[in-house]
C-alpha cells in the first residue's frame, strides 16, 4: 500500500535559508563606548535644533553614495572629521555612511547585503563591517547618517546613527513609515522619484504617530513592535522626473504644504539625484547656487545633502577598481567637497 504524503505548499521559490547573527550578539561583539554614545546623542539633538532654527548652523550630510571599501571610507572620514571640526561654528557635518542601496531594478545592494561585491551575500560579515565602521567614524567625533531600507537592519546599527533617511523609492511604504515611528534619531524622508512631495508629507505625518507592527527584537526573534512616534522627521527635496526642485520657489511652496498639513516647516535639499541628474559636476553647481542663496539670507533650507568620495565620478564593480571612487551614483571628488564646505560655512556667516 502506498502512503500518500501532502505536497509541500510553500518555499517553492526559496533557494536557501542561512543563519544570521542576532542584533544582541553583534552589539555585544562591537559595543558603543561612551565617546561614541556622546557623539551620537549630541548630534541627534543638534540636528533637530538646526532643523527648527534654534541653532543657526547648516546641516550638511555629506559622503559617498555608498560605502563599498571600508578602508577608503575611513580615509574619507578622517579627512571629513578634520574639516568638520574646523567649520563646526557654521556647519553641522554628518557623514553619509550608506550601507543599503535601493535599486531602480537590480544591482549591488550595498555593503551589508554583499560585502565582497561578488554575489556571495555574506551578510554576517556585512553587518560586522558596517557596525565597526560606524563605531570608528563616531570615534573620530564625526556623527553618521544612514538610509534605512531593510526593516531588520536598524536593530543591528541604529544605536550609533545620528541621522537617518528614507529614500525616494520607499517614502510611500507603510513598512518604512512604521519603522521611522520607532527610530531614535531624526529622519529625512525624500520626495518620490516622480518629484512629487505628497508621499513624503504623508510619510512625515504617519511616522509621527505610534504604530504596532511585526518586527524582530534584539535577540532576532519575531516580535510585535509598538512605537510612540517620531516627531523629528523632515522632508528632503531631491528632485525627480519632473526636474530639479531646489529653487527658492520649490522650497517655499514645500514649507507651505508642510505648514498647511500641520507639520513642522523643515526642509533640506539633496544636491544630487534628481537635482543634479546624477551628474557630479552639476551637483557642485547646485551646491554653489544654494550657498549663494544662503549668503543672501535664505533660511528655508536648513540642510544640504551631497554625494562625495575621494575620487570624482563612478565606476562599475569589477577588476582593477579605482580606490575611493563610487560604485553607485557619481560623487564629487574630495578637493571639490572641501572647497564647497568652506563656501557653505562662509555663506552661513554671511547670513548671520
Ligand atoms: O543613490 C543611489 C541610487 O540613485 C539609487 O540607489 C538608485 O540607483 P539605480 O537607479 O542605479 O538602481
Ligand atoms: C538612494 C538615494 O537617494 P534617492 O532615494 O533620493 O534616490 C540615496 O540618497 O542614496
From TrEMBL:
TM segment ranges: none
Pathway in which this enzyme or protein is active: Metabolic intermediate biosynthesis; chorismate biosynthesis; chorismate from D-erythrose 4-phosphate and phosphoenolpyruvate: step 1/7
Its job: Stereospecific condensation of phosphoenolpyruvate (PEP) and D-erythrose-4-phosphate (E4P) giving rise to 3-deoxy-D-arabino-heptulosonate-7-phosphate (DAHP).
Protein name listed in UniProt: Phospho-2-dehydro-3-deoxyheptonate aldolase
Keywords: Amino-acid biosynthesis, Aromatic amino acid biosynthesis, Transferase
GO terms for cellular component: cytoplasm
Entry's family note: Belongs to the class-I DAHP synthase family.
Catalytic activity: D-erythrose 4-phosphate + phosphoenolpyruvate + H2O = 7-phospho-2-dehydro-3-deoxy-D-arabino-heptonate + phosphate
Gene Ontology biological process terms from the UniProt entry: amino acid biosynthetic process; aromatic amino acid family biosynthetic process; chorismate biosynthetic process
A GO molecular-function descriptor: 3-deoxy-7-phosphoheptulonate synthase activity
Start and end residues of each DAHP synthetase I/KDSA domain: 47-341
Keyword check for Secreted: no
PANTHER family assigned to the protein according to its UniProt record, in alphabetical order: PHOSPHO-2-DEHYDRO-3-DEOXYHEPTONATE ALDOLASE DAHP SYNTHETASE, PHOSPHO-2-DEHYDRO-3-DEOXYHEPTONATE ALDOLASE, TYROSINE-INHIBITED
Alphabetized SUPFAM superfamilies for the sequence: Aldolase
EC number from the UniProt entry: 2.5.1.54
Gene3D superfamilies recorded: Aldolase class I
